[in-house]
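Repro:
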Amino acid sequence: MLKIENLNVYLEGSPIVKDCSLEIKKGEIFSLLGVSGCGKSTLIKAVLGLIPSSSGSVFLNGRDLTKLPPEKRDCTVVFQDLRLFPHLTVGENIAFPLHFQKKNKTEERKIVEELLSLVSLEGFSKRTIESLSGGQKQRVAIARALAQNAELLLLDEPFSSLDPNLRKEMGELLLHLREKRGLSVLLVTHDHEEALRLSDRIALMKEGEILQCGRGEELFYAPKTVYAAKFMGEANFLPGRVERGEFKMPFFLFLTTIIRAQRSLLLQRTSRTESILFS
């Protein structure tokens, strides 16, 4: 589906995205996770062609997008600020991309009604944007993005301003859209719980680099760095030493078949709180 190879982005001479490589499969919800300012949104904009990449390549279904303008990349995006048109109705907002597809009015109305039904906003076509709740505006923005009939939907923290219940509701909508339309999604988020709940796979980003990529349980239970362990949730860090395949601490002894060493090593063992049992 989407393949990013060794992508680098410099802004004002500073590296923002550093040698990033990712592959997103068809029908997959893939989360790009990290703190604000780590390069997530810059990476998204480079994929969309909104900012130039310094080196590297972007492919969609084998087609090289790297030098193409944004309108030819077959990707669509919903940003955090949504960018809905306040002077247009809900239906007119959703229909806006259809004007460029040379659809007649009958076709436009049919597609708009189908998309409103898909995002559970039946009967909202004539409503004004100002009359909508935050969650309803999110649904309109997603419906408008889907009207472009693109193969890949990119979401740049569109749910971050919503309360927890609405965030969960919008997450369920994403899962519904994936089921109904086989939608492929690249979701940018700083919320590890959201990423774990929604994603097939997660890439954790720090200071422009991908630290670890894999399924949620891999990042949660087998983090490769202390930073990843802390970012993915509450953890306990137990200092000790590996000797002859055993992880030894001052007061406990953990036997493991995973750690194998030819010599003594100083390290930390990470344990999630819910994995510790005292008796």
